[in-house]
Amino acid sequence: MKIFFMALLFSLTSFTTYNVTDKKEILTEVEFARLTNHVSEIKSFTSANRAYSKKIAFLVDMKIKSGKNRFFVYDLENDQIIDQGLVAHGSGSETGIKGDILQFSNTPNSNCSSLGRYSIEKSYSGVFGKAFRLNGLDETNSNALKRAIVLHRYKEVPDEEKEYYIINSHGCPMVSEVFFKRLEKVIESSNSKIMLYMYY
Question: How far is CA 172 from CA 29, 50, 92, 131, 198, in A?
Answer without folding.
Answer: 28, 27, 11, 11, 11
